């Protein structure tokens, strides 16, 4: 028996996007179907042939495709995203599949492929397949504006996730479940196996009365926006409230409220856009992210893209060459625009520290959430430049505003946070007492920005402020084997002429 599934995927265009596969954006079920399928309402599940009646363009449900056990399955992925230079890597759990076809439409009159055209090509025998020992894979990149054809035998019963491997596409719905077989094909759930559920507490505006909020004079039925996109945070308003306008329910260290901190650090962050000839050079493999517009980018904080140290500094600082570390005042001489090193800022123990984050990315509606490990900080300021003639803020302008007293700060019980969204084209000001010695990561909390360098280490105190490393503590290193083209000769490569 052969089951053929034609699956398309697309990202709705615009500033705020979700992902769709076969016009459905995946929503996780309230309980794991493998062990608790009876606890999930049948209407929770859907697919291209069985969509909820109420579904709009952003149809959200648990996308599940049912497949008979031992069926031969062919999947055709069709890229309707069609962003230049962006190929989506799709991964199937529980299986290795054979790749029998990859390509674009042979019809040169077709500028953009879609489901209807792919079906027509298949009907006419124009979706090329090859069956001469096709390779096995579990992840395959779908060419932009193209297609991939894969096959496998559905001999592993269960609920298997199939998804784009870009984490930021997973969280907005570019996934589905392949359900193979029936409950009778699975082993019984072990007695006493943990159970999960959708334990979401009710939330209403009435429940916020026990918090001290001087601006909560709005009618209770009116919605409030937390951290509005316009970042107007220096005056009360009836439609929104900024974190910096909240008051702390606890007493705040008075030293944090003094006019001048012991240490003041300005940290501008931005993206560097590569040209292809810069990125793809012999004997190099530079990290990068393909952005929605097709640009190849890395992240920079204070002109540095973070590179992990070869060993953990907390336990093996003596194994790391000093030149591995850098900061804005101490960059390697050979640093290019994509300066890569282990960005580390040294702070004296117990100093009062002020950090000013300045957004030089300036993407509309994109506010970067920064997280500090090891500390809670007070939020003393959020905003944008008060100079209406300035269209784009940068480090130089932020320093000038600070010199002129125009970076607004408030010291009336500022709230504690450990993660804070920096308004696009704006700034945030945070303070903390550096009383927890160690090496603490400070980073944007978008995982796809973390992997391309939007991080740094806050190093508090000195080695003498830390407890000794326990005897026999595991040691780590940069155990990277040498790689050269000569080492590839033992692989079977039919094109190696």
UniProtKB/TrEMBL annotation:
Gene3D superfamilies, per database record: Cupredoxins - blue copper proteins
Pfam family, one: Cu-oxidase_2
Listed GO MF terms: metal ion binding; oxidoreductase activity
Transmembrane segments: 159-178
CDD domains: CuRO_3_tcLLC2_insect_like (cd13905)
Keywords: Membrane, Metal-binding, Oxidoreductase, Transmembrane, Transmembrane helix
Keyword flag Nucleotide-binding: no
Domain Plastocyanin-like, chain residue ranges per copy: 47-180, 324-460
Domain of life: Eukaryota
Stored PANTHER family: MULTI-COPPER OXIDASE, STRAW, ISOFORM G
Protein name, UniProt field: Plastocyanin-like domain-containing protein
